[in-house]
Amino acid sequence: CLATLIIMLVGDTYTLINYVSFINYLCYGVTIIGLIVLRWKKPKIFRPIKVNLLIPMTYLAFWAFLLIFSLYSEPIVCGIGLIIILTGVPVFFLGVYWRNKPKCVNRLIESVTCWGQKLCFVVYPQCGGAEDE
C-alpha cells in the first residue's frame, strides 16, 4: 500500500501504466514458467485444463521479446518496477516465513488484516458459520 501511495504521487499516468505493464509482463511469464516446470516435475497431478506445451512455449517466446524490449527501451521504469515487486519481500518474511514471531507481532498482523478486510469489505471464510446451518 505504501509503494502504491508513493507511485500515485508521481502524477504521470503514462509512467504509472509503464510500471504496471512491466510488472504484469514479468508476473505472467513467471506463471507460465511455473506451469512448464510443474508439467515436467509433476506430470501426474490433477489439472482441470491441460494444454499442449507448444502454446506456453510460444507465449514465452513472445513474453521474452516484450520483456527484453521493455528493458532496452525504458530501463529506469523497469528498474523501478522491479523495486516495487521487491518491496513485497520484507512483507513475506515478516508475515509468512518468520514462524516464531512474538505475540505482539502476531496481534499487529491480525489487526492490520482485520482492518484491511473491513476497509475493503472482505471477510475471510470461516468454518462452521451460520451459513452452513
Overview of the molecule:
By secondary structure, the protein is mainly α. The protein has one domain (1-120). It has 6 helices and no strands. α2 packs antiparallel against α3. The longest helix has 29 residues, at 13-41. The radius of gyration is 20 Å and the shape is extended. The two termini are 37 Å apart. The model is unreliable at 127-133 (pLDDT under 50).
Question: Could you list some keywords that capture this structure?
Answer:
neutral L-amino acid transmembrane transporter activity, 133 residues, AminoAcid_Transporter, mainly alpha, L-amino acid transmembrane transporter activity, transmembrane, 0% strand
How many domains comprise the coordinates? 1
| Shape category | extended
Number of helices: 6
Give average pLDDT, whole number: 81
What's the number of extended β-strand segments?
A: 0
Proportion in β-strands = under 5%
Radius of gyration: 20 Å
SSE order, one letter for each helix or strand:
HHHHHH
The helix content, as a percent range, equals over 70%
Largest pleated sheet: none
| Low-pLDDT segments, ≥5 res | 127-133
Q: Class by helix and strand content?
A: mainly alpha
Question: Cα distance, first to last residue?
Answer: 37 Å
